[in-house]
Design a protein that fits this description.
Blueprint: H1 2-9, H2 40-49, H3 52-74, H4 77-93, H5 105-137, H6 148-162, H7 166-176, H8 182-189, H9 193-223
Helix pairs in contact: 1-3, 1-4, 2-3, 3-4, 3-5, 4-5, 5-6, 6-9, 7-9, 8-9
Length: 224
């Protein structure tokens, strides 16, 4: 399944697959004979037969559609890339279940995409709950007891942190919970220092706006 693997995962060293690679022209690496003029229906028929070239063509034709849907729903390009790869892997593994009479190949892929997006959102919710629980369980920083208002504030902050895009969340989590400087975060993550500073700044701005909206909503509810 080398052609199918290349289409979904992109080029990879022989000793280590690279799941985050971007696929390029599907006609590279000996694939110049791909029948690019096939119709959508013919691609679907080829997939059902197990023709790996049709998976390459499906990815070439509809990967942008899948990625756009995932990116709009998740708001995170990295997660959207992961979902896109998962969709085409799922399509290949479940190709025997494709029924042309129930819809076209792109409609079938959109259905798979929606399920994978739902899985990603569910995973994000689980991470949010874990971060909130971890924040609530943190010991007081000054060694003294904390009142319920202070604990509640900390839970709210950790929930807002969990709602950030993944890179911003990771950078701020290392700063808040790992007590790392931005230089240390850059070394830990391999990101340039300027990029770390940018993610930290945008993440904090986003958290402040979200908290301000939440506080305003609470105030309006209290006066209603």
């Amino acid at each position: 399944m080398n052609a199918a693997r290349t289409a979904v995962l992109g080029p990879a060293p022989a000793h280590e697959p690279t799941a985050s690679s971007h696929p390029a022209d599907p006609r590279r690496d000996g694939e110049a004979d791909l029948p690019l003029g096939l119709s959508d229906a013919e691609i679907g028929q080829g997939l059902v037969r197990g023709d790996e070239r049709c998976l390459v063509l499906a990815h070439h034709r509809w990967a942008r559609l899948v990625h756009t849907l995932a990116s709009r729903a998740l708001g995170d390009p990295r997660e959207a890339e992961d979902v896109t790869q998962q969709v085409f892997l799922a399509a290949w593994r479940g190709r025997a279940g494709y029924r042309p009479e129930r819809g076209s190949v792109p409609a079938w892929l959109v259905g798979i995409t929606r399920r994978k997006i739902a899985d990603a959102l569910a995973a994000r919710t689980r991470r949010l709950d874990l971060v909130a629980a971890a924040g609530a369980a943190l010991p007081p920083s000054d060694g003294t007891g904390e009142g319920p208002d202070h604990v509640l504030d900390r839970i709210v902050v950790t929930r807002e942190l969990a709602r950030l895009p993944r890179v911003q969340r990771d950078v701020l989590a290392l700063a808040f919970f790992g007590d790392l400087t931005q230089t240390q975060i850059a070394h830990r993550t391999g990101l340039p220092l300027g990029t770390v500073k940018s993610h930290a700044r945008r993440g904090l701005q986003r958290m402040r706006r979200s908290l301000a909206v939440a506080e305003a909503s609470t105030g309006r509810a209290a006066t209603a």
